[in-house]
Amino acid sequence: xxxxxxxxxxALNVIHACRKGQTKLIHISTSEVYGxxxxxxxxxxxxxxxxxxxxxxxxxxxxxxxxxxxLTEKDNIVILRPFNFWGPxxxxxxLIPRFIYQYLEGKPxxxxxxxxxxxxxxxxxxxxEAVWLARKLPAGTIANIATGKNLSVNExxxxxxxxxxxxxxxxxxxxxxxxxxxxxxxxxxxxxxGWEPKTFxxxxxxxxxxxxxxxxxxxxxxxxL
Length: 225
Known about the structure:
Layout: H1 2-21, E1 25-28, H2 54-73, E2 77-82, E3 84-86, H3 95-104, E4 109-112, E5 118-119, E6 121-123, H4 124-133, E7 142-145, E8 151-152, H5 153-163, E9 169-172, H6 187-193, H7 203-216
Parallel strand pairs: 1-2, 2-7, 3-6, 4-9
Antiparallel strand pairs: 5-8
Protein backbone atom coordinates (compact mmCIF):
# COMPACT_ATOMS: atom_id res chain seq x y z
CA UNK A 1 0.00 0.00 0.00
CA UNK A 2 2.84 2.41 0.86
CA UNK A 3 4.56 1.67 -2.46
CA UNK A 4 1.34 2.35 -4.36
CA UNK A 5 0.60 5.55 -2.45
CA UNK A 6 4.12 6.87 -3.00
CA UNK A 7 5.05 5.64 -6.47
CA UNK A 8 1.69 5.77 -8.27
CA UNK A 9 -0.63 8.16 -6.41
CA UNK A 10 2.36 10.27 -5.35
CA ALA A 11 3.48 10.56 -8.97
CA LEU A 12 0.01 11.74 -9.97
CA ASN A 13 0.07 14.38 -7.20
CA VAL A 14 3.44 15.69 -8.40
CA ILE A 15 2.20 15.73 -12.01
CA HIS A 16 -0.81 17.85 -10.99
CA ALA A 17 1.40 20.21 -8.94
CA CYS A 18 3.82 20.70 -11.85
CA ARG A 19 0.93 21.29 -14.23
CA LYS A 20 -0.52 23.93 -11.91
CA GLY A 21 2.87 25.60 -11.46
CA GLN A 22 3.80 25.25 -15.15
CA THR A 23 6.99 23.49 -14.06
CA LYS A 24 8.93 20.81 -15.91
CA LEU A 25 8.88 17.36 -14.30
CA ILE A 26 11.70 14.84 -14.61
CA HIS A 27 10.03 11.64 -13.49
CA ILE A 28 12.46 9.06 -12.11
CA SER A 29 11.14 5.65 -13.09
CA THR A 30 13.22 2.44 -12.97
CA SER A 31 14.37 -0.47 -15.10
CA GLU A 32 12.18 -2.64 -12.84
CA VAL A 33 9.18 -1.59 -14.96
CA TYR A 34 10.53 -3.80 -17.77
CA GLY A 35 10.63 -7.08 -15.87
CA UNK A 36 13.19 -9.59 -17.10
CA UNK A 37 15.14 -9.04 -20.31
CA UNK A 38 13.33 -9.85 -23.58
CA UNK A 39 15.66 -7.99 -25.93
CA UNK A 40 19.42 -7.37 -25.71
CA UNK A 41 20.07 -4.65 -24.74
CA UNK A 42 16.77 -3.30 -23.37
CA UNK A 43 15.65 -0.14 -25.18
CA UNK A 44 12.90 2.25 -24.14
CA UNK A 45 10.55 0.25 -26.40
CA UNK A 46 10.95 -2.87 -24.25
CA UNK A 47 7.55 -4.13 -22.97
CA UNK A 48 6.45 -2.85 -19.56
CA UNK A 49 6.04 -6.14 -17.67
CA UNK A 50 7.03 -5.65 -14.02
CA UNK A 51 7.28 -8.83 -11.99
CA UNK A 52 9.42 -8.37 -8.87
CA UNK A 53 6.75 -7.37 -6.37
CA UNK A 54 4.50 -4.38 -5.75
CA UNK A 55 7.43 -1.97 -5.85
CA UNK A 56 7.94 -2.68 -9.55
CA UNK A 57 4.23 -2.58 -10.40
CA UNK A 58 3.76 0.68 -8.48
CA UNK A 59 6.71 2.25 -10.31
CA UNK A 60 5.20 1.10 -13.61
CA UNK A 61 1.97 2.81 -12.56
CA UNK A 62 3.80 6.10 -12.00
CA UNK A 63 5.77 5.75 -15.24
CA UNK A 64 2.66 5.10 -17.35
CA UNK A 65 0.71 7.85 -15.58
CA UNK A 66 3.46 10.35 -16.45
CA UNK A 67 3.41 9.17 -20.06
CA UNK A 68 -0.38 9.52 -20.26
CA UNK A 69 -0.18 13.02 -18.74
CA UNK A 70 2.14 14.06 -21.56
CA LEU A 71 0.02 12.42 -24.26
CA THR A 72 -3.35 13.75 -23.08
CA GLU A 73 -2.46 17.09 -21.43
CA LYS A 74 0.88 17.86 -23.11
CA ASP A 75 2.48 18.22 -19.68
CA ASN A 76 6.18 19.06 -19.75
CA ILE A 77 7.41 15.68 -18.52
CA VAL A 78 10.59 13.69 -19.17
CA ILE A 79 10.71 10.06 -17.98
CA LEU A 80 14.06 8.54 -17.01
CA ARG A 81 14.51 4.82 -16.36
CA PRO A 82 17.72 4.25 -14.42
CA PHE A 83 19.06 0.73 -14.12
CA ASN A 84 20.52 -0.47 -10.79
CA PHE A 85 22.23 2.21 -8.72
CA TRP A 86 25.44 1.58 -6.81
CA GLY A 87 27.63 3.96 -4.83
CA PRO A 88 27.86 5.93 -1.58
CA UNK A 89 24.77 6.49 0.54
CA UNK A 90 22.82 3.40 -0.51
CA UNK A 91 20.94 1.58 2.24
CA UNK A 92 22.23 -1.70 3.61
CA UNK A 93 19.18 -3.59 2.28
CA UNK A 94 20.58 -3.32 -1.27
CA LEU A 95 22.94 -5.98 -2.63
CA ILE A 96 26.29 -4.20 -2.73
CA PRO A 97 26.05 -2.41 0.67
CA ARG A 98 24.83 -5.69 2.20
CA PHE A 99 27.81 -7.53 0.73
CA ILE A 100 30.13 -4.79 2.04
CA TYR A 101 28.62 -5.06 5.52
CA GLN A 102 29.00 -8.84 5.54
CA TYR A 103 32.53 -8.55 4.16
CA LEU A 104 33.60 -6.08 6.86
CA GLU A 105 31.99 -8.24 9.55
CA GLY A 106 33.87 -11.30 8.30
CA LYS A 107 30.62 -13.07 7.45
CA PRO A 108 29.80 -15.05 4.27
CA UNK A 109 28.20 -13.04 1.46
CA UNK A 110 24.61 -14.32 1.21
CA UNK A 111 23.41 -14.97 -2.34
CA UNK A 112 19.77 -15.61 -3.20
CA UNK A 113 19.34 -18.70 -5.36
CA UNK A 114 22.08 -19.68 -7.79
CA UNK A 115 23.46 -16.14 -8.09
CA UNK A 116 23.21 -16.11 -11.88
CA UNK A 117 20.80 -13.17 -11.94
CA UNK A 118 22.37 -10.19 -13.73
CA UNK A 119 21.97 -6.43 -13.35
CA UNK A 120 23.28 -3.34 -15.13
CA UNK A 121 24.89 -1.27 -12.35
CA UNK A 122 25.12 2.53 -12.79
CA UNK A 123 27.28 4.67 -10.51
CA UNK A 124 25.12 7.12 -8.56
CA UNK A 125 27.13 10.20 -9.64
CA UNK A 126 26.67 9.19 -13.28
CA UNK A 127 22.92 8.95 -12.66
CA UNK A 128 22.91 12.42 -11.09
CA GLU A 129 24.68 13.84 -14.14
CA ALA A 130 22.10 12.21 -16.45
CA VAL A 131 19.24 13.71 -14.44
CA TRP A 132 20.84 17.15 -14.64
CA LEU A 133 21.27 16.89 -18.42
CA ALA A 134 17.66 15.72 -18.76
CA ARG A 135 16.38 19.16 -17.76
CA LYS A 136 16.96 20.27 -21.35
CA LEU A 137 15.23 17.31 -23.03
CA PRO A 138 11.95 17.94 -24.85
CA ALA A 139 8.65 17.03 -23.22
CA GLY A 140 7.60 13.43 -23.79
CA THR A 141 11.16 12.06 -23.90
CA ILE A 142 11.67 8.63 -22.30
CA ALA A 143 15.29 7.55 -21.79
CA ASN A 144 17.24 4.80 -20.06
CA ILE A 145 20.22 5.46 -17.77
CA ALA A 146 22.46 2.41 -18.06
CA THR A 147 25.97 1.22 -18.86
CA GLY A 148 25.29 -1.45 -21.49
CA LYS A 149 27.19 -3.93 -19.30
CA ASN A 150 25.92 -6.26 -16.59
CA LEU A 151 27.27 -8.50 -13.85
CA SER A 152 25.80 -11.50 -12.11
CA VAL A 153 25.56 -11.67 -8.33
CA ASN A 154 28.21 -14.40 -8.43
CA GLU A 155 30.52 -12.11 -10.40
CA UNK A 156 30.08 -9.33 -7.84
CA UNK A 157 30.90 -11.77 -5.07
CA UNK A 158 33.97 -12.65 -7.14
CA UNK A 159 35.12 -9.01 -6.97
CA UNK A 160 35.17 -9.27 -3.18
CA UNK A 161 37.26 -12.43 -3.52
CA UNK A 162 39.72 -10.51 -5.71
CA UNK A 163 40.06 -7.98 -2.89
CA UNK A 164 40.30 -10.69 -0.22
CA UNK A 165 40.61 -14.33 -1.36
CA UNK A 166 39.39 -15.51 2.07
CA UNK A 167 35.88 -14.14 1.35
CA UNK A 168 33.22 -16.83 1.68
CA UNK A 169 29.75 -17.02 0.10
CA UNK A 170 26.55 -18.71 1.23
CA UNK A 171 23.59 -19.50 -1.02
CA UNK A 172 20.11 -19.03 0.47
CA UNK A 173 16.66 -19.73 -1.05
CA UNK A 174 15.80 -17.75 -4.19
CA UNK A 175 13.35 -14.87 -4.02
CA UNK A 176 9.99 -15.27 -5.74
CA UNK A 177 9.62 -13.93 -9.30
CA UNK A 178 13.09 -12.38 -9.27
CA UNK A 179 14.13 -10.80 -12.56
CA UNK A 180 16.77 -12.95 -14.25
CA UNK A 181 18.57 -10.28 -16.23
CA UNK A 182 18.63 -6.54 -16.90
CA UNK A 183 20.87 -4.96 -19.52
CA UNK A 184 20.19 -1.38 -20.58
CA UNK A 185 20.56 0.46 -23.88
CA UNK A 186 21.52 4.08 -23.15
CA UNK A 187 22.14 5.09 -26.78
CA UNK A 188 19.06 7.35 -26.87
CA UNK A 189 20.24 9.39 -23.87
CA UNK A 190 23.74 9.56 -25.36
CA UNK A 191 22.41 10.79 -28.69
CA UNK A 192 20.25 13.47 -27.05
CA UNK A 193 22.69 14.73 -24.40
CA GLY A 194 26.13 13.19 -24.97
CA TRP A 195 25.88 11.38 -21.63
CA GLU A 196 28.18 8.43 -21.05
CA PRO A 197 28.73 6.29 -17.92
CA LYS A 198 32.14 7.03 -16.40
CA THR A 199 32.51 4.75 -13.36
CA PHE A 200 32.07 0.99 -13.61
CA UNK A 201 31.73 -1.80 -11.07
CA UNK A 202 35.15 -3.42 -10.78
CA UNK A 203 37.50 -4.43 -7.96
CA UNK A 204 39.40 -1.09 -7.64
CA UNK A 205 36.19 0.98 -7.56
CA UNK A 206 34.54 -1.49 -5.19
CA UNK A 207 37.54 -1.23 -2.87
CA UNK A 208 37.05 2.56 -2.73
CA UNK A 209 33.37 2.11 -1.92
CA UNK A 210 34.20 -0.35 0.86
CA UNK A 211 36.49 2.31 2.36
CA UNK A 212 33.67 4.86 2.16
CA UNK A 213 31.29 2.64 4.13
CA UNK A 214 34.04 1.73 6.57
CA UNK A 215 34.54 5.44 7.30
CA UNK A 216 30.93 6.62 7.12
CA UNK A 217 28.91 3.68 8.40
CA UNK A 218 25.79 2.04 7.03
CA UNK A 219 22.37 3.48 6.29
CA UNK A 220 19.12 1.61 6.81
CA UNK A 221 15.99 2.51 4.89
CA UNK A 222 13.14 3.79 7.08
CA UNK A 223 10.33 1.44 8.02
CA UNK A 224 7.29 1.72 5.75
CA LEU A 225 4.93 0.48 8.48
